[in-house]
Amino acid sequence: MKAWQVTALGEPVDVLRLVDVADPAPGPGQLVVRVLASPANFPDVLMCRGEYQVKPELPFTPGVELCGEVVALGAGVAGFAVGDRVLGGATLPHGGFAEYALLEAASTFPAPAALDDAEAAALYIGYQTGWFGLHRRAGLRAGETLLVHAAAGGVGSAAVQLGKAAGARVIGVVGGPEKAEVARALGADVVVDRRAEDFVEVVKAETGGRGADVVYDPVGGDTYQRSTKCVAFEGRILVVGFAGGRIQSAALNHALVKNYSIVGLHWGLYQRHDPAAVVECHRALTALAAQGAVRPLVSERLPLGEVADGVQRLADGSTVGRVVYVP
């Protein structure tokens, strides 16, 4: 089969190679799927650079989430059959940027009928992260104000939709007018172009000086530091990631005097600590998709030959929504 492989560490466009490799074979508890769609995610970028907490041995095929059609079952797999349309996280080194990939049955789910292949593939990591972050970690309530950074990106766009579905008032922060239009289309009540406006001042003005009840921050660095200036009394700042490239330090005295919470979110740990909650989350997301309340924003559908370019553009911060490999 054809697959993209990382053969050395560096920028995606420099280290990804499209090669012929053997089809994966399922081990116990595993599924082999024909890849129907696989989105580019920031962990793919970080793994290419060798900067992610998961460091697969070289060479490996990235593509951490996908939608696929089951073609083979490993020993002990129950609940799935050849021909099923499923989604889940790929088992590296056999990731989604290939013709076939490997999944663990325990973390594989039926693909929602309401979504096409590219949309279903993008429902897994970003939306599960958003659901656990907003509901389980931050306890977002209807009527609260939710501030979402990088609101036109893959992770941020999911948080905007999930926040609206929960009844929150959503303020989205983006970089540039094109991304501002995307955030508005997603349903954000207020959109801030950080290149033209100070989001701290906008949040204060829109909330009568109170601030945002929940801040959803996949960027980190200065974005986090500025967010502490506009978080509400008893607000919650969700630390989701560090796409901005710098891991901030939290001033705990500031959290004390302003009475806000700094909440970490590592969604992947739920697979180990509370797998039943992951199943329940997928049920909830499937129901929201059926209602039309959430739909992953797929901005580009790329053939296999253009995957490296798409992953590099994600690394460079020039993409909007999800860039998805679709055979």
Automatic annotation (TrEMBL):
<dbReference type="InterPro" id="IPR036291">
    <property type="entry name" value="NAD(P)-bd_dom_sf"/>
</dbReference>
<dbReference type="InterPro" id="IPR013154">
    <property type="entry name" value="ADH-like_N"/>
</dbReference>
<dbReference type="InterPro" id="IPR051397">
    <property type="entry name" value="Zn-ADH-like_protein"/>
</dbReference>
<dbReference type="InterPro" id="IPR013149">
    <property type="entry name" value="ADH-like_C"/>
</dbReference>
<dbReference type="GO" id="GO:0016491">
    <property type="term" value="F:oxidoreductase activity"/>
</dbReference>
<dbReference type="Pfam" id="PF00107">
    <property type="entry name" value="ADH_zinc_N"/>
</dbReference>
<feature type="domain" description="Enoyl reductase (ER)">
    <location>
        <begin position="11"/>
        <end position="325"/>
    </location>
</feature>
<dbReference type="InterPro" id="IPR020843">
    <property type="entry name" value="ER"/>
</dbReference>
<dbReference type="Pfam" id="PF08240">
    <property type="entry name" value="ADH_N"/>
</dbReference>
<protein>
    <submittedName>
        <fullName>NADPH:quinone oxidoreductase family protein</fullName>
        <ecNumber>1.-.-.-</ecNumber>
    </submittedName>
</protein>
<dbReference type="InterPro" id="IPR002364">
    <property type="entry name" value="Quin_OxRdtase/zeta-crystal_CS"/>
</dbReference>
<keyword id="KW-0560">Oxidoreductase</keyword>
<dbReference type="InterPro" id="IPR011032">
    <property type="entry name" value="GroES-like_sf"/>
</dbReference>
